[in-house]
Each structure stands twice: as C-alpha cells, then as structure tokens.
Amino acid sequence: MSSAGTRKRRTELAPVNSEDSAQNTPVVKRVRGNHGCSTRSGVHRSPNENTITEDYSMLSADSEPEDTVEEECDIAGRLVSIELEDFMCHKHLFVKFDEDRNCTYIGGSNGSGKSALFAAINLGLGGKGRSNDRGGSAAAYIREGTNRARVTIVLTNEGIGKHPKYWDQIVVRRIINQKSGSTYELKSRCTEPEKEETVSKKKGDLDEICRRFNIDLENPVVWMSQDRSRQFLQELQPKKLFNMFMEASKLGNCYQQCAESRAELHDIQIKLEDFKTVLKDLNVDYHNCKKRLLATIKIREKNEELQQIECDMEWVPLKEDKELIVLCEKEILEYEKKINDLNDKKNAIDESLEELQSELNTTVVSEDFMTRKQELEETVQSKKAERQRFFDERADLKTKIGRVVNLRTSTERQLALLSEQLRNMRGIDYEEQKDKEQRLKGELERVMDEEERCRDLQAVAQENCINMRRDCDQAEEELKRVKMLLRNTKDQVETIERDKRRMEDIRRDRESRFGRDVPRIKQIIAQNAHMFDRPPIGPVGAFVSVADRRWTDVVEYVLKRQMGTFLVGSGQDRKTFYDLLDRNRIEYKPTVVCQRFHDRRLNIARFEPDESFRTVLRAITVSDDNVYNNLVEDCGAAGVLLLDSDDEARRLMSQSPPRNASKAITPNFGEAFPVSAGRPYRFYSNTPYRARFLVEDDGESGSRRDFEAESREAKAKYTNISQELGEANRIFTELAQRLKSAENENQKIGSSIERCAERREQIVPELQKMSLEVDVEMLGNLEQEIAEKKLNMERIKKEYEDLREELINKEQHMDRVRLEVSELEEDIRGHIRQEKELKRQRAETRNQINEKKRKATACEQRISEYEAKSSAKEQEALNYRASITAKEEKLVQLCAERNVPPLDVAKVPPRDELEDAKRRLQEELRKYEEALGGPPMTDELLKEKKEKVHTLKNQVEAYESLVDRLRQLFLNRYKQLQTLVAHLTYKLQLSFVRQLHLRNYGGTLDVDFKNRSLSIHVQTHKHYTDPAPSQKKSQDLRGLSGGERSYATASFVIALWECIECPFRLLDEFDVFMDMINRRIVMESLVHVATERYSSYQFFFFTPQGIQDIQDKQKVQIFRMPQVRR
C-alpha cells in the first residue's frame, strides 16, 4: 500500500481528545476515594515534546491508595451467547452468558476446547486467523473432516454507545469455508417481541460495529491468548512492557496520527508555496501580456504596410511580361541568323563529301598483288617442312654420336681396369692371399652374427622404451590432471571462504555484495554530499534488476564490468571522491566513470534492433536515468541480443544480422558477432558464468548454505587429492628413471651395432679386392681380353668420325634452307605492309566520309532546332501579349473595386526591390510575433488577467491565514495528547500500586518515554512491613519468586485493563506459572476487579485448573467445558 493510501486510511480515525471523539466514545463515571489527586500534579514536560517524566513521590511504597468503585451502568457490546458448529474440536457448542454476572470462569481439562472458544469469539467478530496463534488462516480452524465452520455471536445493543440501526441485540454470524473464504451476516434482534431482521452481509459493517463498541480485535491485553499469556509471563522485559502499554492504550496510534498530521500540515504548506509560485508566475504573465498588447498593435501596422507592397507586386507580372516580349523578339532575330550560317556550312560539307567518295573508289587492292602474296606463302610452307625434316635427321645423328661416345668411354674404363689388374697380378703371393681371405671370411661371419644378435636386442629394447615412454606419458598426464584437480579444489576452498565472508557482509548490508567497503563508501558520500557538484551515483548494479531470472547470469556476464562502478558528473567530483576515500583509509577503490548527468533517459529508438528481438537493455529494469544512460553508452546494452540457442545465434548473425545488433549471446554464454563488409562472422564458446550481483535472493540462498560443511568437505577433498598427487609424482619419477635406464641401454646396443657395421664395411671391400686377384692361369686370358678391347676401341673411333662428318653436312644444308625461308618471309612481310597501308588509307577515307555525314546531319538537326525555337518564341510572344491584355483588364477591375487609380506600369518598382521591402517587413513582423508569443492580445483579455491575479492573491492570503490556524490547532491537539499521555500513565501507575496493596506489596511502575521502556519494581511484604525506610528493598521482576512474579504480572494486566474501554476482556491460562496461594489470591483479585470495580464490563477467564477456590460464586458464572466428541 502506498504512503498516500496509508495516510488517508489512518486520518479517518477519530482524533485524540476532540469533540467528535468525546461524543462517540462511551464515558464511564467513577467515584474515587480521598487519595485521588489531579492528573496535572506531578507531571513535568521535558524539553523534548515526546518525553514525559513522572513524579512518583505520591506513589511510594508507604502510600496506601484506596479502592475505587465504578458506578454501574449498561454498556453496549457485551457478549450474550456464542454458538459453534464444526469449529476446531467442537462439532457443536452453544454457550449462553449470564447477563447479570459480568465475570465468567471457563474451566476444563487440556484439550476440552477452551482455547477454541477463545479463538471463536475473536474470529466470529471478524478477527484474523494468525491473531489467535492457532493457524495462519481462518480455514485452519475448520474441524477436520468438514468443509466449513460457523460461529454465531450475540452482542447487546443497550446502554452507552448503542448502535441506532439495530434493536436490542446484534447477531453476528461468520461462515468459514475451506476454499471460498468467509461470509458474514449481521442481524438485528428484538427480544420483546421476538423478531430478527438481516441488516447487512458486509465485513465493513461488522468492523464499524467493533469500532463503535471499542472492540479491538488486535489488542493483546483484551485478547490474552494461551501463548501470549505464557510469553507475557516469561518475557517481562521493559521494552516489551512499554510496547504492550502503548499498543493496549492506543497511544502509539495517537502518536502516529500526530506524526501523519504534522506531515500533512507540511504538505499543505508546500501546496501553499506552490500557490505562491503560481501567483508569481501569473504576475509575470500579466506583465508579459502588456508587452504582447504593444506587439499586437505593431503587428497590425506592419500588416497594413505589407498589404500595400503586395498590391504593388500584383502589377509586377504585367511589367515583366512586357519585358519578356521584347526579349522574345530579340531571340527570334538571333535564331534566324544562326539558321543562315548553318545552311552555308552544310553546303560546304556536301562538296567535301563528294571528293572523299571518289578517292575511296580509286584506292583498291589489285588481283596480281594478292596472287603473288599467296605463291610466296606456299613456298615458305614447303621450305619450312624441308627444314623440319633436316632437324629430325640431325637429332638422330646426335643420338647415335652420343651412344658411340658412351661406348668408347666404357671401353676405355674397362681397358684401364684390366691393365691395372694385370699389373697387380704379376706381383702377388697366392698362398698367403688365400689364408688371408679365409681369415677375413671367418671374421665377417662372426661380425654379422654379432650384428644380428645386437639388432634383435635393439628391437626388444626399443619396444620396451616405447611401452615405458607410453606409461611415462600416461603417468605425466595423470600427474597434470591431479595437479589441476588440486588447484581447482584449492580454488573451491577459497571460493567457499569468500562466499562465506560475502554472505556475512550481505546480511549486515545488502549492498556489501558489490564490495565490503561499499556501504562505508555510500555513507561517506552522504556525509560529504556538499563537497560535490552532484553526489556520485553507485554502485551501478544496485539500480539494475532482471525480470526474467533465466537471463540473470547472462545479463550480469555482459554488464559485470559496470556492476561496482560509481558515476560522477565531472573530473573535479572524481578527484574529490578519491580524496575522500584516501582520507577515510578505504582500501578498495571502485572504478569511477565520469559522464554528464542528464537526469533523463537518452532516446535510442533509432539505434536499437527491431522490437521483436530481446536485448540486454530490454531484459533489465533500471531505476536511475543516469545509470540507464551509462549502460547504453559504455556497455552497448541496447545492441546485445539475447537468443535462446547457439544454433539460432549462428544462423541469425551469419546470414541476416539484425540492424544495430553488435553481437548476440545465448544462455550457454556463446557469443556470435555479425557478418559485415569489413569483418567476417565469428562465434566464441565461453566459460559459464554465475551471477553474484543481480540475484535477488542471494542473502536467502546464502543463509540456506552450510558453509562449514562445504568447507570441511572441500578441505578433506584437498587433503585426499594432495596424497593422490604425492603417489602420482612418485610413480612418474620411477617410470622416468626406468625409461632413462632403458634408453641408455638402447643407446649402448646401438653403439655395438655401429661398431659391427663399421668392421663389416672394412672387411667386404678387402674380400672384393681379393676376388679380383686370381692365379697365373688367368693371366693369359686377361692379356688376350685387353687386346680385344683395344681393337674394339679403334672400330668405335672410326664410326664416330663418320657420324661426325655426316652431321656437319646436314647442318650446312639446313643453313641454306633457313636463309631461303628468311628471304621469302621478308617478301611476304613487304606485301602485308602494303596491304595494311591500303586498308588504312581506305579506313581513314571512310572515317572522314562518316565524320562529314555526321556533321551534315548535326547541321540539319540544329537548323530544325533553331526553327522550332524560333516558332516557339513567336508563339510565346503571342501568349505574352494575350496575357498582358487579360492581366491589365483584371488589374483595372481590381482597382475599380478598391476605389484606387490604376498604377503606371513604368513606375512600378522591380520585383527585387519589392521582395526586399517585403522581406524586411516580414522580419520585423516575425520579431513582433515572437514578442507576442501567441494569439493576439486584447484589452479585454488583459483586464481578465489582472482580475485573475487579484483573485489568486486574495486566495493565497486566505490560505495563509488558514494554514496558521491549522498549525495552531495542531499545537493545541498535541498539547491535549500530552495531557492524555500523562493521565493514562498516572492511571496505569495508580491501578498497579492499588493492586499490589491487596497483598500487602509495595512498588513502582516507571514509564520512560524517551528510552521507550517500562520498568516494574516490587517490594514484597517481608520488606514492605519493615518500619525502617532504609531497610526497604525494591526488586525488579527477575528477583521475585515465581508466584510473586505471576502476581505482579497479573497486577500489571489489571492496570492495563483500566486504560482501555473494550466491553469485554479475555484471559486464557493466566495461572500457568502460579502456585496455589498466589493463584487463589490472583483469582480473588480478578473476581474483585471484575465484579466490584468494573461491573459494567465482561471478563472471561480460561483455566485448565480447578475453580473451586472462588469464594463469591454468586457473582461469578462458572462454565465447564463439556467432553469433546471428536
């Protein structure tokens, strides 16, 4: 509910100590003893108007106030009967109260339904379900297994405060339904004769009856339920006692109404100031109207001058038409001259065209020239074919020469080798050579066996290295994984601790979620606001909320850079801001953005995407206009699209990105950038982000988290992972050492293989060399083979010389053919040049002919155009003459109608001069119209403005007088409230002391309005009867025994009853903590108070204990609850 609505509802209550209140409130006359004294004695107002200090000298423990007796009278609103149907544990219960006995004790064992009867009285009169500590709603009071409950209460309507619309009794019936709420029915009943009549079925009428009878359904003193009794007896703290006194006596409501009246009076004063502002504006408007009247007169004069100029401008077209006729005649003469010149030029072009055509006919290529050219081309083709044949034959000869050269080279090499072998064989010891060969072959076999064995070992070692390297890589990956898991777990522990500290800060102040120092920073800004041109605004995130929680994480991911930012209006304010933070030792210095404060939102409709797309700016609610502008300018929130899926983002931004869209983001935090002319489409998959600033229920979710358990679990996980890391590190170290050993072994085997290979490479050439060294028998064959090779060599040389000579002859013949081809091609090129020259000459002549034809055609076209223009000008001159005649007749007729002589056209000023004069007049007229600023002002309207100012001035003076009177009335009312407070306080103290005296107790009751506390001090009989004042000991309630404390509490409740005017009171299980003696005394006191002092009111006491101790039973109605049928 808004504050205005609350103020309106509360101001409808009856004013304190007003005449209306005195008429509508029942008054009970009392007869007091001699101990009574004036309520004004002993009351001193402190300088603070809301504080009253009491003088308790008259209420000391030695004083013994006498009892007072109420003068019995009838009061409307007492209970006659109550009937319950399907209410809580009662299927049906009817109780009729004795009208001659105002005190009723209702007894019964626990579970017999006493509290149900208590709650039924409250609910039946329109009370709320939560007011009776039995359920959250009225439907909770329906008996189990049924759908509705009914409560019927009959009230008296006789005596003081009776309602004029009803007869002797008022019947209130409330039906509570399980699903459809409650219905009410109010009936008027007449006992003699018996008849009933339904008056209303509205809850508001029932509330009006309760207000008239002073039945307060929320007053805890009137409705002392079972739980309230226990809580009241156990927690008697001064603050709570004071609140109970203020609530029971309604003084709190009085003070609240007083504060609201003060606020309304302040609002009236503001409205009066607004009226004064309006009066000032009207005075200014009146003086402006004077200026506007002067401007109206000037406008009228300038309009007359302007009208005269417009009349002169009507003759300007006539003058201009005559001038145009002269121009047309001049242009016609010029066109005729140009036509004659063009005809002469065309004749010259036709003569030149005939000469060029004859020259073109003579320039033709002859047939002999073309035949000679064709013969030359055929001869060149035959020579080229012959030349190609020689090229092929030369290539074959070069190939044969190459083969012969290769054969000669090979033969020479073999011959040299055989000669060298022959020389070597002539000096060799063949026996020694065979032994050496056998030794080398044995060594070669051993070396090859060793090499093969080492290669087998190397294969096994390499396979072991590969397996161990794979195991080592797996161990290293596992080690990296465990390290990463350990880092993540450590980050998790730190995150939990950080969240725990953050939740603690947020519980103290919600803005702490933006940083621990943010509340302190805002306090510093508030305290030093005068040092800024405009106080800084921030943090930005405090002004932002997200309507759809599905997008909270994504929106904060986009705006997270701005969440803790503060906004300032100038560079000087930024410097002042940081200086204040340094001066107050603020370690955390937030980011500050300097921008101009417009105090209105920027119009960005042209720069936003289409309304069918959801953007970050459309997904949030910003409560400050300057923060809104910052999010638009710095974050570009208006151009960031929120799309439902990554596929949609890819498709939209790559094919047809919306206008003004800077990027798109999805709930999976995928970012898609649009394709454009300068940049390609891009898509990024980002790490998920969890919102920390924009979540609404962060404090509640934090309160539900068990940070200690999470921290213990994370630390235990960290310890286990640390042990796992040690084991993984050990395994990795062992595998690395084993891998290194295996690689060293493999390297040694490789070295052995290399040594064997080197030795094998040394032995094999020696064996090959020995294989060439044969015995003496082979020597003869070798010499014979050398002789054959030399003969073959001579034959090869002879073949080479023959081929070489043939190649030289072929090349000479090819040179002769090449020369002949060159000469023929030169002749052909000469013929081609001559042919091109002839074609060029013919093309040039043809171009000249075309150019001449084009010029002739252009001359004909221009002649036609000039003839058409000349005809048009002649027609235009005729039209002008006809127009001049018509215009002149029309202007003469207008002058006759205006009774002015026609103007001499020759004397009419030029159009430029008239337009300049008109422009000057219009400029002056515009200035006067700007000074006018609206419709023309008249003397009557100015007089009306003056009368309005005078009337408003008189009203403002009358309102000022009224406000002064209201302020005085408010002060008088407030003084009456202070008197009422003093009276009720004294009444409470007097009643409390009187009740203590019934048991020979003494004590005081101190009410401190400044500290809002109510302190009770009691002197029991063992201290009270001591004649020495110095030996008397005053104790607060904590120092008393259980029974004494219960009696003092009961005395306080009885004292509170004297401060209220409800026609009945209910007290449930008041004796829960009393011993038998104090219970008997309290019961007698309650009966005495009810029957002797407040016989006009009803009292209902509910107790589960026995009530046989009541002595004066003829004045008390005792009702025992029947056995409940469940």
Question: TL;DR of this structure?
Answer:
The protein is of the alpha/beta class and 1126 residues long. It is built from 24 helices and 26 strands. The two termini are 43 Å apart.
Q: How does this model look, in words?
A:
This protein starts with a helix and ends in a 6-residue tail after the last strand. Helix content is 60%, strand content 11%. The protein is built from 24 helices and 26 strands. With 1126 residues, it is of the alpha/beta class. A hairpin with a 4-residue loop joins β18 and β19. It has a domain at 367-424 and 776-897. Mean pLDDT is 78; it is low at 1-66, 698-702, 773-777 and 1027-1032. The strands form eight sheets. The protein has a six-stranded antiparallel sheet. It is flat and about 170 Å long. One of its GO terms (biological process) is double-strand break repair via homologous recombination. InterPro entries: P-loop_NTPase (IPR027417), RecF/RecN/SMC_N (IPR003395).
